[in-house]
Write a structure and sequence with these properties.
The complex is a heterodimer of chains A (140) and B (431). Chain A has 140 residues and is mainly α. Helices cover 52% and strands 11% of the residues of chain A. Chain B has two domains: 151 residues, Aspartate Aminotransferase, domain 1 (Alpha-Beta Complex), CATH 3.90.1150.10; 258 residues, 3-Layer(aba) Sandwich (Aspartate Aminotransferase, domain 2), CATH 3.40.640.10. The chains are: A mainly alpha (140), B alpha/beta (431).
Chain lengths: 140, 431
């Protein structure tokens, strides 16, 4: 049976809930980043760079057969882990689903409150950029 | 402290390290001092706060906090020209603060001390005023260094753009010091001003400003020294440095934010035009012509930060009570020990020369400084990450930024040791 976006978000939250302390949470998020599908360094172009983050984050959005596909990378492993949370939820969904997705699960991860405002802001920028990719795909 | 070091004989450790590093023994007791800094006694994420971001801003002792409070509780009033008792008391305190600051710097007279909002404001004041004087013409040259903070770069760039002046830069050597041989060849008869920092905020490099000023003086160029990072750590004697201008910020030397100082040689301050117009800075105003006040008032338009100036003088009294050389010695021990402990960690690059003041900047191979800073924050450590407002310097070293630990009199060896342990833990998580 197909897993919905809401279910995927809940799964991530359940996983994070298992951890007792911040160390394990961070290790989990860093691990998610490491498990991301590798992004060809040739795709590290300025048009794929998400502007406004302290670390460099690249995002490549594409769609095939009505499904969004995301590749992401960062020179910061924590940032890469953060964007991996979004990729895990949004990758493979239709552009319409991504556009209407409620991504407030990130607030419930308990990670955001541990982040410097610049980093928390980066999360918003990442989500916006992923939705922008979906918007472009839906207009094609 | 998260199971980090437990020390039984800290004074013993300090003494043996002082012998090891051949440092003078400091009499300063940071533990006693910490009781005067209420903010240090708090926990971050369940761990004791270890504040190592002093190059960005220092914490304030009770004496300074009380000074601000006393001012508003007892004598708050607008200064100068006031006929009533409170105004006279506020004026006396404000002018006495100027005198304290002049003595601290060994300036010739209090009129050489101008209250500004900070170092950035001081640089802008001089750049703007010089730009309105007849001292510069197109084709002239200004020399800064590759170690400068953006605040000692951008105001000069703006002046250069406006007047067609060329900006030249003293290169930085691989060890993070200035290439003074190159400096000698940069100076020409076209050089009209040299502006460098005394201590680098990014790497802690201590520049030989006496030499830099003396070379500039030979060809009649003016000299401006950014002392934001030297005043908290070193004894600064303006008579021996013999610069034309010296600037610093109150908040980096245990004083409040929003107050800073510009020292300028008296004859220069008399000659230069004001840059902001308003009250306080005038002698007489008519709609036809306004005549300007004498220095320092000529450069202090509007109601100044009265309380800030008084509290800054209290902060310098606080420093003098501790004796600045004792602070220097204590911080040298902390920095040497930090460099030694961190130097043993795999993949580290430490920037700057061995003899540094205030700050220790470093990176680990393959690890983003921002990630380390984030994890250290989880453990209660306040360090700064990023380019430290020195993007050209970061480019020179091919990096986007560093992690910087910067020290004050109240930091302890115990904190330095625990930083090493915290870094080990963070590195393990990130590798």
């Amino acid at each position: 049976m197909r897993v919905t976006i809401t279910e995927k978000q809940q799964e991530l939250l359940d996983d994070l809930d298992l951890f007792q302390d911040w160390t394990e949470r961070y290790e989990y998020v860093i691990g998610l980043g490491k498990k991301l599908q590798p992004m060809d360094p040739n795709l590290h172009t300025s048009d794929r760079l998400i502007k406004g983050c302290q670390s460099q984050v690249w995002l490549d959005s594409s769609s095939k057969d009505g499904k969004m596909s995301y590749l992401a990378d960062s020179d910061s492993v924590i940032t890469k882990g953060m964007i991996a949370l979004f990729v895990r939820v949004l990758d493979g969904e239709s552009p319409e689903t991504v556009l209407t997705a409620d991504l407030s699960f990130i607030d419930k991860t308990g990670l955001k409150e541990h982040l410097a405002p610049t980093r928390a802001n980066a999360l918003t920028l990442m989500a916006a950029e992923m939705k922008k990719g979906a918007l472009e795909a839906s207009q094609q | 402290m998260e199971g980090f070091f437990i020390f039984t004989d800290l004074p013993g450790l300090a003494r043996s390290l002082e012998r090891h590093y051949r440092l003078r023994v400091s009499t300063l007791d940071p533990y006693k001092l910490r009781s005067e800094f209420p903010i240090l006694h708090q926990e971050i994420n369940g761990n004791p706060l270890v504040y190592l971001d002093n190059a960005a801003t220092s914490q304030k002792p009770l004496a300074v906090l009380n000074s601000s409070r006393d001012y508003y509780e007892k004598i708050n009033s607008n200064i100068h020209r006031g006929v009533h008792r409170l105004s006279q008391a506020a004026t006396a305190a404000h002018e006495s603060a100027r005198q304290t600051i002049a003595s601290h710097l060994n300036a010739n007279r209090p009129e050489e001390i101008i209250f500004t909002s900070g170092t950035t404001d001081s640089v802008n004041l001089v750049a703007s005023s010089l730009g309105r004087s007849n001292r510069f013409k197109a084709g002239d040259e200004i020399i800064i260094s590759g170690l400068e903070h953006h605040s000692n770069t951008v105001p000069w760039q703006m002046l250069c753009e406006r007047l067609g002046i060329t900006l030249k830069v003293i290169p930085v050597l691989d060890n993070g010091t200035l290439d003074l041989e190159a400096y000698d060849s940069l100076i020409t008869e076209r050089t009209k001003l040299v502006s460098v920092n005394h201590v680098s905020n990014a790497f802690g490099t201590v520049n030989n400003v006496t030499h830099i000023c003396s070379q500039a003086r030979k060809i009649g160029a003016l000299t401006f020294i950014d002392g934001a990072q030297s005043i908290p750590h070193l004894n600064v004697d303006l008579e021996s440095i013999d610069c034309d201008f010296y600037a610093f910020s109150g908040h980096k030397v245990y004083g409040p934010t929003g107050i800073g100082i510009l020292f300028g040689k008296h004859e220069l301050l008399c000659e230069l035009p004001p840059w902001r117009g308003g009250g306080e800075m005038i002698k007489e105003v008519t709609f036809e012509k306004t005549t300007y006040n004498d220095p320092p008032f000529k450069f202090e338009a509007g109601t100044p930060n009265i309380e800030g100036g008084i509290a800054l003088a209290t902060a310098l009294d606080f420093v003098n009570n501790l004796v600045i050389s004792e602070i220097t010695d204590h911080e040298s021990l902390l920095i040497k020990r930090a460099a030694e402990i961190l130097g043993e960690l795999e993949g580290i690059t430490i920037y700057g020369p061995d003899d540094r003041a205030g700050a220790l900047s470093f990176n680990f191979e393959g690890i983003h400084h921002y990630d380390l800073g984030t994890l250290l924050d989880q453990m209660g450590f306040a360090l700064r990450t990023g380019h430290h407002c020195c993007q050209p310097l970061m480019s020179r070293f091919g990096i986007t930024g560093t992690l910087r630990a910067s020290f004050a009199a109240y930091n302890t060896l115990e904190e330095v040791e625990s930083l090493g342990e915290a870094l080990k833990k963070a590195l393990m998580m990130l590798r």
